[in-house]
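Page 47, continued from p. 46.
Same chain as before, 198 aa.
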Amino acid sequence: MQYFYKYFFKVLNFIPLYKKSALSLIIEALAEYFDKAREDIIYLQNQFIVSLADDEYIPDYARSRGILRSKYDYKDKKIAKEFRHRVANAYTWNLLAGKHKGVEKILSTYGFKGFSISNYWNINNARWAEFDVVYGTNELFDDGAGLAELVNYYKPARSKIRQIRFPTSINAISYQGSFLRVHQSIILSNYEKEEQSL
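Result:
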């Protein structure tokens, strides 16, 4: 890039650079050394900014900021990018946790679409600290343990999961028809064989 060489040549207007001499070679080498030092300083500065840091440092930033890295963060690059975004915005992400709407948003971010939280105290006042996780669609779902892990991590501290509910109805095509069944029985009683004579 030669930032410092341009600086010496154009801004400082350093006279020995205009003619080739030993001093101009030394200044050119010094400018190249300063450029490399500048690149190293920028690289080091970027390692302290989560959105610019290398991927190997992101789990350490997440651990220091209280962001859970679950198995879902390794599925694809888009989710890994979302994980970096959650670590960079850890303060607002942690503000979402502990609230029902926030837990629903967190679940949808992790790929659990269609889930909602309903308080159980609306049904039974004595069980005020319990809530249900309700799955609102009829799509197949196979990871209840991962869902429970995420909800337990981000739920309000005073609350506990009562149950995870799935829909009880299944959409199916029904056919209506009728048929006639005839039942016929013959009862034989007191049947005697007649003898025939010739």
